[in-house]
Amino acid sequence: MKYFRFIWKNVFRKKSRAFLTMASIVLVLVLIVVLSSLLEALDYDTGRTKGAANVVVQHATGLGNFMPLAYRQKIEQVPGVVAVAPQIWFGGIYVDERPQNFFGQLSTDPQVWAIVHDDYSIPDDQLIDRFHWTIGQRIQVRGTYIPGTIDLVLRGVYTGPDESNIFFHNKYLENSFLGRLERTGIFYLRTEAPEKVPGVCDAINKMFENSDAPVKAMPEKQFMLQFTEMMGDVKLLFRSIALTVLFTVVLIVANTMAMSARERVTQIAVIRALGFRRSQVLMLVLSEAIVLALLGGVAGALGSFPFMWGLIGIIKHTPVAMFAYNLKISLATLLTAFTAAVGIGVLAGFVPAIRSSRISIVDGLRRVA
Amino acid sequence: MADSLICIEHVSKAYRRDSLQIPVLADIDLTIDTGEFIALMGPSGSGKTTLLNLLAGIDTPTKGRITIDRRVISSMRETELARWRADHIGFIFQLYNLIPVLTAFENVELPLLLTRLSRQERQAHVRTALAIVGLSDRADHYPRQLSGGQEQRVAIARAIVADPVILVADEPTGDLDARSAGEILDLLNRLNTEHHKTIVMVTHDPRAAARAHRMLHLDKGVLSVEEPAAALDRSRDGR
Ligand SMILES: Nc1ncnc2c1ncn2[C@@H]1O[C@H](COP(=O)(O)OP(=O)(O)OP(=O)(O)O)[C@@H](O)[C@H]1O
Ligand SMILES: [Mg+2]
Known about the structure:
The structure holds two protein chains of two kinds. By secondary structure, chain A is an alpha+beta fold.
């Protein structure tokens, strides 16, 4: 690429302007990398195949209502069902009500819990990490809507897609009103295979159709989506922010390129006189914009790593700590960033490049003289 | 006439400003032979630069025909003309017009980027051109680190590096002191005699014009041949 030197030197013709423009690209790219990584972390579904054989049963009217615990035996009879674990969201307070101390507490049946969750296998111990717990740790949670304080001892650590919960034995709730009423929040169950899921859901839904407490059985994925659906708006917001800043930086770079091209009308007339063709001038100016954008892009992509590490550290102490553990800069995100950088260069360089290629040699030469 | 290097026949040039036609050159006829050194003189606004631009192939005539080296350049298309310029014409400007971000070496190398020459061949050509203008030791200097006379010599090296047949120079000494101007004129003379370049030079300076074989005078778009002595007289009158 014999023209590279010429292009490179022209990029840094006005050093401070080049660096300021690059700085704006860097900032935008950091923002884009962080936003796309957040979007990826929010996408519960991304690349996930685990739990495909799981079904969650809740009260037909919603999670606020509880179902008779006796349903468990009936559900266990449904063909295709392997194990059924009743779970209750305890919603207790740990230490105090500050958001960084929030985590999910679910009571369950330890006998079958392991069967239902056997394929949870992402190694990360979020809560251990957050609270510096150790095995044998005493954990006291104070009930809110379920009265009573329960004392727990940490016996083991599970790994899974959502590690921001603790699970404890149903027996701790036996003395609460729920225990006396023999009710539960949800049933978490495992079927023999993912293909069985639709049939099992239908069978369960039918089974309790005409009872006092009709239920809604659904695949685990659909159940999880209920909680992330509200994230839809957040995603839209992130996407619009990303697009807006992208558009802004295109204008900034375009402005730089236009200024730089305007100052060089004579220079361009000179190289055209020397024999450079219009198409060559177009490519040279366009390449300058792309080189500028790519330099900013590489610096931005590299700069987003320390930024992301800092962000993860902060998120770990918030109620949405679980996202911190899904948050990482993926190869796809980096590729998106580079594509964005090249896109910025092409979009911003196009008009100045066309303009430069169209100048008249004679007028350009006359300009200084 | 057909054997001449440059053959300008019935060439007119008019600029259009809105609906107004501004005639600059009217029915010019001129032939220049290989190896000639021509000085083109005339008052400001008489059309000297315009004529030079036409025969250098960076502007096209409104009427008439320009044939150079047996090729009709007045009817060539943009891209063809660009390639032709790279092969046939070396440009020397009043304000040197070097690219400020490039070193002397890189400036001289610029026209060679358009050729198929290898890196080594390009380097050899650039070194030769810089040696001819006597600036081998300034190859790595940037234009701002050179004097006006040196800048013009680098520009001349750039003009000759691709070995064109014709050099066009628009007031090459117009921005220089007498000594530097003298050096530049010596250099042009040498390029003409030793390297057989055909040179067409626009100048206001009668002493510069006196170096030429032939002096042409342009006034209000009309061309006439002029005796060197007459030019000197006129310059004494203050034009
Ligand atoms: N692009 C253009 N549009 C309109 N008029 C033009 C244009 N270019 C040149 N002219 C006019 O053509 C005439 C001749 O200009 P030219 O530059 O050839 O003169 P010149 O003899 O080189 O003058 P000088 O000695 O001042 O350089 C001038 O009147 C100028 O105003
Ligand atoms: Mg002129």
